[in-house]
Amino acid sequence: MIKTNAARLLDAAGIRYELIPYEYTEDDLSAQHVAAQLGEDIDQVFKTLVLRGDRTGCFVCVIPGDFEVDLKVAARISGNKSCEMLHLKELLPTTGYIRGGCSPIGMKKPFPTFIHESALLYDYIYISAGQRGLQLKLDPRDLVAYIDAGIYPI
């Protein structure tokens, strides 16, 4: 298995994780599909969303796979009056990642990141390893500390 940039960064930081492969199709890149492939609860499979605020620019929300981001709450916690999802065509040039393979670890530049508070209920969660078909299984506390994320009820 080829290590992703996110995995190499975790290695360099001495953070424990597992790389977990899964099968995907272009037709279904959803977190629900990932959870089903992993045989895990959807509440432990987190998705990474990149948003743009009207004041601060880009920021990241990491939320459970079956949640939708509340744009008003996301704007407030990120110091913005309003925000919107980053347009798909901007995702790769902004983050270095593509839809379905966007990790909160190892983006082209660090963005303020906010992780849903439910992540701390678990000993481990899954996030994208930075490519489609590969997840990182890690302790959410390690993730929060490594990327200096805020914990919020997004």
Give a verbal description of the structure.
This protein is 26% helix and 28% strand. The protein is α/β, with parallel strands linked by helices and 154 residues long. It has one domain: YbaK protein. The longest helix has 9 residues, at 5-13. It is globular and about 40 Å long. The relative contact order is 0.23. The model has no long low-confidence stretch (mean pLDDT 94).
Provide a concise account of the structure shown.
The protein is of the alpha/beta class. The chain has helices spanning 5-13, 31-38, 71-77, 88-95, 140-147, and strands at 17-21, 46-53, 57-64, 83-85, 113-116, 125-131, 134-138, 150-152.
- Determine the CATH superfamily: YbaK/aminoacyl-tRNA synthetase-associated domain
Question: How many whole angstroms does the radius of gyration measure?
Answer: 14 Å
Query: pLDDT under 50 segments (min length 5)?
Result: none
**Got a strand count?**
8
CATH architecture: Alpha-Beta Complex
The coarse overall form would be globular
The arrangement of helices and strands along the chain is HEHEEHEHEEEHE
Mean pLDDT: 94
Number of helices: 5
Question: In which order are the strands of the major sheet placed?
Answer: 4-2-3-5-8
Q: What structural class do helix, strand and pairing data support?
A: alpha/beta
